[in-house]
Design brief:
This protein is an alpha+beta fold. The chain has one domain: Transposase IS200-like (Alpha-Beta Plaits, 2-Layer Sandwich). It has helices spanning 30-46, 73-91, 95-98, and strands at residues 3-5, 8-10, 13-19, 50-57, 60-66, 110-114. The strands form two sheets. The protein has a four-stranded antiparallel sheet, with helices on one face. Strands 1-2 form a two-stranded antiparallel sheet.
């Protein structure tokens, strides 16, 4: 999918996976999965990230995303993880008790590029 923006045209796609701290199964009900998907979509809309596909599993998130090449991938990931963690703890403060140190996400992530050659 080619995206036209002011100043650039791109087909920039990324596979992104990040996990909960200690791989704890935080999203263990359909309601919690739905809430996290809504949070991720809200943050993506704020940052002009196009979520093409997304799965929220009990202990990780898997997304196929696209964003402007003017953005740094690390900043996109930090924005998604940091914002969703803050909002999640507002909705579910009891989750902090499950996670030593009070962090929702592991500091690491996996990202790979996808594209046409």
């Amino acid at each position: 999918m080619i995206i036209h923006k002011r100043g650039c045209v791109y087909n920039f796609n990324f596979d992104l996976v990040f996990v909960t701290k200690y791989r704890k199964e935080v999203f263990d009900s359909p309601e919690k999965v739905k809430e996290m998907k809504e949070l991720l979509r809200e943050r993506a809309d704020m940052s002009e990230i196009d979520i093409q596909q997304m799965e929220v599993m009990p202990d990780h998130v898997h997304m196929l995303i696209s964003f402007s090449p003017k953005e740094r991938p690390v900043d996109i990931v930090k924005g998604l993880k940091g914002w969703t963690a803050r909002k999640w703890f507002e909705l579910h403060p009891e989750t902090k008790q499950m996670l030593w140190g009070g962090h929702l996400w592991s500091p690491s992530y996996f990202m790979s590029t996808l594209g046409d050659m």
